[in-house]
Amino acid sequence: MLVYKFGGASVKDAEGVKNLAGIVLRHKDNGLLVVVSAMGKITNKLEELYRAYLEGRDDVQTVFDEVKAFHYQILEQLFSAGHPVFDDIANTFVEIDWILEEEPDEDAPDYIYDQIVSVGEILSTKIVAAYLKEAGCNVEWTDARNYIHTDNTYREGKVNWEKTENDIRKKLLPLLERSIAVTQGFIGSTSENFTTTLGRDGSDYSAAIFASCLDAKSVTIWKDVPGVLNADPKWFDETQRIPQLSYHDAIELAYYGATIIHPKTIKPIQNKNIPLLVRSFLHPDAEGTDITSANNHLPVPSFIFKINQALISIFPKDFSFIIEENLSDIFSLFHKHKIKITTMLNSAISFSVSFDHDAAKLQALIADLSVHYKVKYNTGLELVTIRYYNQETIDRVTAGKNILLEVKSRYTCQIVMRDKTVPA
Ligand code: ASP
Ligand code: MG
Description:
Helices cover about 40% and strands about 25% of the residues. By secondary structure, the chain is of the alpha/beta class. The protein has 2 domains: about 1-215, Carbamate kinase; about 300-420, 2-Layer Sandwich (VC0802-like), CATH 3.30.2130. It is globular, with a radius of gyration of 24 Å. Magnesium ion binds near residues 8, 37 and 38.
């Protein structure tokens, strides 16, 4: 049993769907589950539609028309007129029409979000499955909501593993013995059959859930990059593909903000020791990155870069020490304001923390902290995390920077810094 996951970038246009079919058709046998995300940037568009609807804006229909036009234009390039997929897609849009006809229930915004935004994956998989069938593939469109069972935490459904595993084994396994299945990433359903989503970029996680419950031989994530790189080409000139990566390193890189794989993806497949293969959909035969339990390769220093960081330093007003009591107090305020810490360091009389800067959250946090603490802060900072650092890599990334905070553990170094040209 194999699981292939195709993200939005791989199916952003008709060419992408044809390319996907080329990759799937090389795998002629059954025993393949294909997990597909919404096409291109459609999830963002559907989020816009959701906001327009919730706020009662008058561009609701315009935004919805853009979503429709995008899909119809792809359909027209893939199928001749009169193909049944046109009706199937039109009927899927009707489901959104029904939602938009009603007044929005302001008490249930997350529920509404999931009902609207999940449609992106329904559309993409219907198109992909119809195209694969047209191309001679023995394929069945499969509704992930019959398999991925969650609680009713809309926008971030928590998976009910027992129920999910049970249904996948009982119903999906036999189906996969008959044909290839195409299903949606990102979505699931509650025990009352309402649609939930698993959090943005959650399709990797869906693929991992399916793979784990199917005891798959491997999961392949088909991407527009040649594999996991040791840095984001957006920020670094010289990047290098990492051919072998341990689960542990993959989790660490995802945790520190590498966007290559969704952080929740690794755990389920690591538990079953299922290899995660990252491959390029543009060069399907090229080597990519194999993420496995193997841990015996030479580590390559990896760089994760984040901009727009805030750094605050917290001092007890009475100059007492920073002790456990203060820390638990401080952490609960971060939790209250939903601020995710990116680095922290404590000394005897101060505690410093960096996080993604959000002006409103920062002001609210400082107001709360100021009751008991003196607070100093900086914004507009950069954070670089180096996994497997050495002095040379630190020197390279800090050239021309002022360092405000540096935290080192055995393998990971994090530096909060500011360009020397930016006034303090
Ligand atoms: N379509 C969803 C998103 O863009 C899920 C995914 O692509 O993984 O967030
Ligand atoms: Mg996506």
